[in-house]
Specification:
Mean pLDDT: 76
Shape: elongated
Low-confidence stretches: 264-271
Distance between the termini: 51 Å
Number of strands: 8
Length: 271
């Protein structure tokens, strides 16, 4: 959006908000908005979810009710099976006793592990702390009649797409999504032009320059997006490992008592 030829005197700003409450929309994770002296105009709402289908559908309808929103995206990131903390066991106690200190993230994580490509094991005996991920991206574009398609059984078309990014995805897997997002950027461009024509003083040359603006052929670098998802999932896994370590060690300390704890603390720690 920064490449749009906007006259600074118009006082227009394009802001991307993250997890901010907006009246009439709620609290989406990402929110693209045009702000100007004659009011603000929401353009694109994106939410990251892991809720049940009914809750997601309700959220989508809520966003679609905002009349100025052009695009709505729902990004559903799920593990193949829900995480359940391991129960305390002799194996867990042995692991904590043998390696008492809490591992740092660097020590805990092997650089070759990637939750987008498979489950991540850890110091938790016989357990994975991050299961393999499934990423589904649904995007709706407001059609020329000013409506969003809400057919529960809809298939991908020029105003809706459902794309799943898997372990071995290629650019071809996101081609329909990229096309829809490209049309969405055009629709956002038209909304901006409409706002400028209504509220700003401009010359024919300025209006022509804005209309000739061409958005990027690919709105997102999905390879880079996957790297961010991977990093976030790994930190979730490390948090689970820390919680397991703290809980297990506390249980051991409560079971063994002060005298045994004193003996335990005499063990040499790792370098």
């Amino acid at each position: 959006m920064d490449s749009l030829p906007i006259n600074a005197q118009w006082g227009l700003h394009f802001l991307i908000h993250m997890t901010t409450f907006f009246k009439g929309i709620g609290m989406p994770d990402l929110f693209l908005e045009l702000q100007g002296p004659k009011g603000d105009r929401p353009l694109w709402v994106a939410d990251i979810v892991s809720s049940q289908e009914e809750e997601v559908a309700s959220t989508v309808r809520h966003y679609m009710e905002c009349q100025d929103v052009v695009l709505v995206s729902i990004i559903d990131i799920r593990e193949s099976s829900p995480y359940k903390p391991p129960k305390h066991s002799s194996d867990a106690a042995k692991a904590v006793n043998e390696w008492q200190d809490l591992l740092t993230f660097r020590e805990w994580h092997s650089g070759t592990e990637n939750p987008a490509f498979g489950s991540i094991a850890s110091s938790i005996p016989h357990r994975s702390v991050v299961d393999s991920l499934t990423i589904t991206i649904k995007t709706w574009l407001r059609n020329p009649e000013g409506k969003f398609s809400t057919n529960a059984n809809q298939h991908c078309d020029q105003y809706y797409t459902c794309t799943q990014i898997g372990p071995n995805f290629t650019p071809a897997d996101t081609s329909h999504l990229d096309l829809l997002l490209g049309r969405g950027m055009r629709a956002i461009q038209n909304s901006i032009v409409d706002y400028i024509v209504q509220h700003c003083q401009l010359t024919d040359g300025e209006l022509s320059a804005i209309r000739q603006w061409t958005p990027s052929a690919r709105v997102f670098d999905w390879e880079q997006v996957m790297k961010y998802v991977n990093k976030a999932a790994l930190w979730d896994g490390y948090g689970r490992y820390r919680q397991w370590h703290d809980t297990t060690k506390r249980s051991i300390d409560e079971t063994t008592g002060p005298e045994s704890q004193g003996e335990s603390n005499k063990r040499p720690k790792r370098a």
